[in-house]
Write a structure and sequence with these properties.
By secondary structure, the protein is α+β, with helices and mostly antiparallel strands. The protein is built from 8 helices and 11 strands.
């Protein structure tokens, strides 16, 4: 999508810049609740010869893979945060080889240097709509408990594209039953960052056997009267990397996002 230049020219993004500086300096922590009001993004970095396959995959699966920006081949920069470095400004990265996770690191510079044709995709993140949900009085449990959001690999296949295939990953937040409609309405106003939930209740209906054992992130408490609500998740590309045996990729670690200079309001429909 094209961003109005006003968002880049007139927004005080000092909180976002400070957060990135902390991660560049070595701080490692999940980013939910950090720099509230500024959009966060998932990231996947692929060789140029896989970039078209992924762009098509994202176009065919916009709910879990809403693309916010694509870098030029070989460039670790993004319009979403001028001056930022995608090799160093996330708190934690994952390095993938032949579809297998081989390393987690707070600095992806060495891996990035292995190729001169890498293309970075920044993908909308549901952390973006957490701030307006909190402002509406809806508790976000992983923020309260200072843990990572729980994420689950479902049995819902994404539409394949070229060499890429895989199932959707979802994030889960327990919501009081009386507030589920409010949570859906609020998140639905942000279609560029996953939008409204994809499933409510009954985790077994989407292939999740045990909420206490997330595939990524941390399990959270579900109190009496609360309903598990599931949103499409930007970890879905990592599921595609694993299912498709992608030879080389760099991604964010789940829950450890890139914080942009773009206010949430830029993506409010």
């Amino acid at each position: 999508m094209t961003l109005p230049t006003a968002y880049l020219d007139h927004t005080d993004a000092s909180a976002a810049r400070a957060a990135r500086a902390a991660y560049r300096g070595g701080r490692v922590a999940p980013t939910s609740g950090i720099a509230p009001g500024f959009t966060q993004a998932n990231m996947i970095v692929l060789p140029r010869d896989w970039a078209f396959d992924f762009l098509l995959y994202a176009q065919r699966n916009p709910k879990p893979c809403p693309v916010l920006d694509v870098s030029d081949p070989g460039s670790p920069t993004t319009l979403l945060a001028p001056g930022a470095d995608l090799r160093t400004d996330l708190p934690l990265y994952r390095i993938w080889r032949d579809g297998k996770l081989v390393e987690e690191t707070p600095d992806a510079t060495a891996a990035w240097a292995e190729r001169d044709d890498l293309v970075a995709f920044l993908i909308g993140c549901s952390f973006t709509f957490e701030t307006p949900m909190v402002e509406a009085g809806i508790e976000i449990r992983h923020m309260t408990d200072k843990s990572n959001v729980p994420m689950y690999l479902t049995d819902k296949a994404c539409r394949p594209a070229g060499r890429l295939k895989g199932n959707m990953v979802v994030s889960m937040r327990p919501i009081p039953a009386a507030r589920v409609a409010d949570a859906a309405t609020i998140s639905g106003r942000f279609p560029a960052v996953h939008g409204a939930p994809v499933h409510v209740g009954a985790p077994e209906d989407i292939g999740i056997a045990d909420l206490a054992k997330p595939d990524f992130g941390d399990a959270v408490r579900i109190e009496p009267g609360e309903v598990p609500v599931f949103w499409a998740c930007g970890v879905t590309p990592q599921a595609a990397v694993m299912a498709s045996g992608v030879p080389f990729a760099i991604t964010h670690a789940p829950g450890y996002m890139f914080i942009t200079d773009i206010p949430d309001s830029a993506y409010h429909a």
